[in-house]
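#random but structural
TW: two for the price of one
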Amino acid sequence: SASRSSSFASRARATCATLVVVCARVAPGARGSRGVRGDGVTSAFERPPAAAVLALGIDARAAHERALLDDDGDDGDVPSQVHLTPTGIGEITVTWATRARVARDATVAYERVNDDDRGTNGAKKATVTSDSYTAQICFGSGTLFAPRMGQTPSVDPMKVVELANTSAWAATDAVNYRVVRAIEDVIPAGFFASAPYDKGVCLDYNNPDAQYHSPLIHKATLRNLIGGSRVAYTLPGSATSRTFTVPTVPTRHSSHHQSWTFTRIAVVGDTGQTEVTKEVLTHVAETLSDAQVLIHTGDLAYADGFAPRWDSFGRLMEFLTSKIPMLSVVGNHDVSVNGLESTAYAMRYPSPSVSSKSPSQLFWSYEFGHAHVIGLNSYANPNVGLFDGADAPQMSWLLDDLASINREYTPWIIAVFHVPWYNSNRGHFKEAERARIALEQVLYDAGVDVVLNGHVHAYERSKPVFNYAEDACGPVHIVVGDGGNYEGPYGEGWIEPQPGFSAFREGSFGAGSLLIHNDTHATWEWRRTTCVANTTASNSYFERSGDASTCRTIPDVSAQAMEPVDIAILRRDVGACPNKRVGNAERSNEASGYNADGASSHVTTLVITSIVLLALWVVTSVMLVRTLRVLKYSRAYRSPSLLANSDEYDDEFAGDGAIGLHTLSSSMGSDKF
C-alpha cells in the first residue's frame, strides 16, 4: 500500500490496495531463481510511482490532422493508424482507421515521385474497402494493471469499475443490473496470480458498455508499382500525402553476376507500447530509413484483451509504418483471450498470403531484393490436432512454398516465426521443441539461411546450428524480442554456462538490421537503443537508464551485457553446403513481375548503348561529309593566306558568301582564323 499510485489513492484507496494483491500475488514456488518465471509469466509486482502517459511518437502533421477530431465531429474521416504492407510483387496495401465513414466512392490517389516529391507520371487511384468489428472488453493479463515497464497502470481500474457498474443506468429489475464498486467485483482477488495463468476476465456480454466497437478500418491496394521507386499516396480525408519506397523486384543473377544494389531489412519484435518501444522505433526510423521492409517477429500491441490498446499501438507505429512497409507474424499476445486478439490482428494487419498462395493470412511468403521471406504461425500445430478442422495446412503449404523458390532470383531464404527454437534464456526455454522437431529438417534441407524470432524479451544470436550442434550449413537463429513491451526484460534469466550454439546474448532493448550485399554475403547488426534498471526491491518495475552506448540493463547477467552493438558477417557457402543450392523453380517474368535476367539485362544495356553510339557516329559522319561537299562546290574551302590574296578571287567568288568569309578573315587576322 505504501508504494501504490497516489492518483489511485485519491480516488479509491481501498480498491487499489486490493488491486496490488489481485495482480501481483505469485503462486508459491513459481518464480525462477533469478526472478524469471519458467513459464514466462511476470513475477511479483511492487507498485512504482505512476508513470507519465506515453507521447505516441506522431509527427506534427498527423497530430494536427488528428486534432481536428476534437472539433464538432465533422472531421472524423481524418486517417490515423496508417501502415503499409507488402502484399505482392509491385503491390502495397495501405491500411488506416477513421471514426467516421469515408465516401462510398473514396479512393487513394498515388503516383511515382522524384527526389523532390514531384509527380512524374500522373496519379492513379486505388479502390477503398472498409470493415469493422465488435469485441467484448476483456483482461487477459494482470500486467495491464501492474506493468513492469511503461505507463502505470496501463488500464485505469476505476474506468473498468465505471464500465462494469450497470446500476448507474439499468433498471433494478433488469437482468443486466449489477452494482460494481471496486475492481475486485470485476477481477477476483488473486485471479492472475494463481494457476492456470493463461486465462482472462471479460465484462458481462449483456452490458452494452462492455462492447468495444473498432474504428472503421480501411484498406486500399496500390498496384503496378515499380521496384525501387518512390511513391506518394494521399488518403481520403488527409490534407497531405505520404511517401514510401517500393521494395525492389527480385532479379535473376547468373553465376558470374553480382547485384549492384543491396537489400536492407529492419527487424523488431515484442514491441508493445511504452517509452522504450518509442525509442526502438525511433532508432529504426532514423538509422534504418533505407530499409526496404520492416519485419516484426510477433507480439505487436500487447492489448491483452483490452481492445482499445490496438488503436493506441497503431497510432504509436504510424510515424514509421506509414513510410516503411511492414511484414509481421502472429505472437501469443496476438491470439490470446479466446481468439479476440486474433480478430483484431487479422482485421488490421494483412499479409501477402494471397500472392504466395497460402490458405491462411497467418502464414505467407514474400520475395524482394535478394530475399525470399517466409512467415510462419508458431501457434499452428505442425501435426494434426485432436480437434483441428484441417490437416496441418501450414506444413503442406510450407513444402509447396519452399519448392517454388528460385535461388537465381532470391538466393537468401529467411524464415520468421514468433517462438524461438534456439534460446538460452529460462523464459520460454525449449517451448517450441515440438515445432522444431517437426520443421527443422525441412528448413535445413531447403537451405534456409536465417531464422528470425521474438517471444523472449532479450536479444540473442546463434551460430549456424542444426539439432543443437554447430553446423556450417545450418541457419543462424536470431531472437529479437527486445522491442520494449510492458513485461520488461528477461536479462536475469540466462542459462549458465552459455550453450555452445549461442554466439551473443544481451537482456537490453534494441532493433536489428540484415544488410544483404549480394548472393553470398550479408551483414547482421543489432544495436542497443535502451537500458533499463529495476527501481523496486523485488525487481518488478524498470525505468530507462544511462546512455545506450555505455549503459547496462540491471540485472542483466549475460557476458555481453555491456556491448552496445553485435555485428556478424553471414556467408552462404554454396560450394561446401549443397542445401544452399536447393531451389530452381521456374519464373515467368510476364506473369510474376520479376525482372529479367540480371546478367542479360546488363548485356542488353551495353548493346543498346553501342547501337546509339554507332548511330550518332553515322549521323555525325554524314553531316561532316555534306559540309565538306558544300564547301568544295562553293570553292570556299581555302586557307586564310589564300583568302587574304585578292588575286585568288575570280568571278565565282563575287557572291556574298566569299566576300563575307574574306571580311571575317581580315578582321580576325590570319593567326586567329
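TW: number two ↓
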Amino acid sequence: PTKITSDHGVDMTKKLILPEGATSTGGMRKILLEQGPEGYAKAVREHKGLLLMDTTWRDAHQSLLATRMRTKELERCAEYTNTALANAFSLEMWGGATFDVAMRFLHECPWERLESLREKTPDIPFQMLLRGANAVGYTNYPDNVVHKFCKQAHASGIDIFRVFDSLNYLDNLKLGVDAAGAAGGFVEGAMSYTGNVADPTKGKYNLEYYMKLADELVDMGVHSLAIKDMAGLLTPAAAKQLVGALREQHPNTPIHVHTHDTPGTGVASMIAAAEAGADVVDVAIDAMSGMTSQPSMGAMVSMLAGTEADTGIDKSLVAGLNTYWENVRNVYLPFESGQLSGSSDVYEHEIPGGQYTNLLYQSRQLGLTDKWPEIKRKYAEANMVLGDIPKVTPSSKVVGDLAQFMVAQNLNPQQVEDQAETLAFPQSVVEFLRGEIGIPPGGFPEPLRTKVLKSRGLEGIDGRPGASLPDYNFEEAEKLLKEKFGAKFIDDKDVLSHALYPNVFTEWKEFESIYGEVSKLPTDLFLSPMKENDEVEFELSPGRRVIIKLLSITPPRDDGQRTVTFEINGERWLMPVTDMSVASEANVRRKASGPNEVGSPMPGVIVNLKVKEGDIVTEGEPLATLSAMKMETVIPASTSGVVKHIAVNIGDKVDGDDLLVEIE
C-alpha cells in the first residue's frame, strides 16, 4: 500500500470511553441466551420497531478497506459499542473474508479476535457469515470440517450464523444450515439476491424463484430468512414486492434484509423493506457506511425516530462511535478503493460491494488500472458467458477472474466460446464449469462447459461437490502441526485454521516464528516502516512498555543484506536483514515468440511447474500454474514435443508474454 506519513510517536487511535452514567441495559443477547434460537426468533417477530444489524466490524471494512481492519481498532471501541448498540439485533463481526485476511495479511489469529471481542462485548449477539459448504473458504471441505468449525465458532462466541451459498445451491445450503444448527446457533438462511424482481424483463430471477427458495430454507428449519443483496441491486420497489410477499407467506419467520449502498439507494430500499414487513435491516456506522458498504446507521435511526419503526438506538451514543471510526478510517487510507461517490452503473455490471475494492486492487496489480471501466463492462459480459449467476464469494471470484482474463486477452464473449478448447482459462473458471462449487440456477452454460471440460479431459461433478470427500483427519493434522511448530504453539483452533487454509496458516505461523506477534504493534507502525531517527513507544504487555529508536540502515550489499541498528529502551542492537526489493538488472526476461515458445498470458507469479526439461508433452497439456493475486491460471502447451528449456522457477514474478517454456 501507499505509505502513511507518521511520526510514529503514539498510536493514532485511542480507546473510546463511555460518557459518565451510560450503562448497558442488558442487550438483546440476554433474550437469545435465556430463550434459545426459537425464542429469539419469536421475540424478534414480536418486537415493536425496526431492529438493526451493524456491519462495521465485518462487511463495512471488507467492502471499503479490503478487510484490512486490525483487531486492535475493534477492541478499543468494543465496550462502548456494547452499550451504544445494546438494542441491536446483532453485530456482524466475523466470517466472510475476515478469517483468511486475519492470517494472510494482518498476521493475527481469527479465533483470538472473536474471543477477545466476545469478552468485551457480552450483551449483543455476534453474527458471522458462513459460506455454506465452503465455510469461510473458497472451496469445498469435508462435512466434518464444516461441522467442527461451526461448533468451535459457537463455543468461541458466535450466536447467529447467516448461511448462504454463492449459487443458491440447496445441497450446499443444507450442509451449512445443519452444521450451524447442530452447533446450537441461531440459523439465518440467506438467499443470494441478483436480478430485479420488480422488472419482469430481467430473466430467471423473478419473484417466483425467490419465494420457492425461501420455502426450501424454511423447510430446512432456519430460524430467520435473509435477503442477501451483495451488490446493491435491491431497489425500493423490489424490496417492497419481495419482502411483502415473504411476510405474507411466512408470517412467523423473521425477515432480515442486507444490501450495499453502491448505487446510493440503500436507505430508501431499507425503509421500503421495513414498511413491507422486514424485522431487521443491515446498516453501518456513518463513517464506515455508503458506497460499497451498507447504508448509514445514523440516517436510519434519525428517519425512524418517534415512528412505529423506531430503532431504539440512542443517537447521542452513536455520535461518539462515528467520531471514533472517522479517525480510524483515516489510518487505513492506503486501502481505500479510490471510489469517491456512489455508482449507479452497478445495475449493469452487478459487482458485489465486497468484491469491488479487491477487484480494483487486483486490476492495479495486473497493470489494468486504466482499463477499470472496461473491466466493469467485461464483468457483466463474463457473468452472461457463465450463464447469469448469483455473484458472491466464491462465484463472484469466478466472474471477476474471467472478466480480468477477457480484458487482458482482449476477448469478447463470442471469442471466449469459439476458442474455449485452447484458451488458458483461470483455474477458478474451469473449476466452476466442472461443478466444484455447485450447480448454478438453470444449469451450466453450454456449449462452453462441454468444450472446456472435453479439451482438458475432465468430467463434470454430479450433486454436492463435497459429498464424496473423505473425513478430514484432525488427529493426524494435529500431530504433524505440533511436530512442525511445537506442541505449545498449536491448539484445536489452529488445527481447524489449517484444515481451512493450510498454506495461509503455515505461512502465518512461519512469519510469526520470525517476527513474533506483530498484533502488538501500533497500526501506523504496522502499515508503515520506521525511518532513520524515528522513535516509537508502545505496550508489549500490561505494564511493559518499550521505546524503540531506529538509528541507521546500511546500504544493501550485492546479495541484498543490510544491517539495521536500533535502540530498545536505550540498549543498542544490530541486526542483519535481507532486503527482498533489491534485484539484479540482469533478471530481465525475454518475450516468447513463435509457436514453440510458451509465454505468460498476464503478469503474475509462477506457483507450480508441472514438467521438467526433457519431458514429452502433448498440445494442451498443463505446463505451469500462474497466480495473479487469488486468481490461478494453468498454462497449457501450445504444441506437442519435448520440453527443451524452462525459463522460470517456482516463485518467479513474470510479466505478460515473458518466456516460460520452450518446446522442441
